Amino acid sequence: MADSLGQRLELLEAAIKRATREVERLRAERDTLKARIESFEAERAELRALKQERKDIVSQMDAILRELDKLEL
């Protein structure tokens, strides 16, 4: 019975070590994914700003072209 208990404890200890390693691996993966998400969010914000800038430029060009049409050159 002592061997059985000792073996059970060894198995439990090994399982705890495996679980600890897995938790550490998952935490590292989570941190990596968080960093990627932050990077994607920054890129998305930059893309929104560029799209707005493009929209503003198109509006300005449209206004300039309308003014040129009024001049009847």
Question: Could you explain the architecture of this structure?
Answer:
With 73 residues, this protein is mainly α. The protein has one helix spanning 2-71. The radius of gyration is 31 Å and the shape is rod-shaped. It starts with a helix and ends with a helix. The mean pLDDT is 94.
Give a short synopsis of this structure.
The protein has 73 residues and is mainly alpha-helical. It is built from one helix and no strands.
Q: Which blocks of ≥5 consecutive residues have pLDDT under 50?
A: none
**CA-based shape:** rod-shaped
User: What Rg, in angstroms, do the CA atoms define?
Assistant: 31 Å
Order of SSEs, N→C? H
Total count of strands: 0
Question: Residue-averaged pLDDT, rounded?
Answer: 94
Helix count equals 1
Largest sheet: none
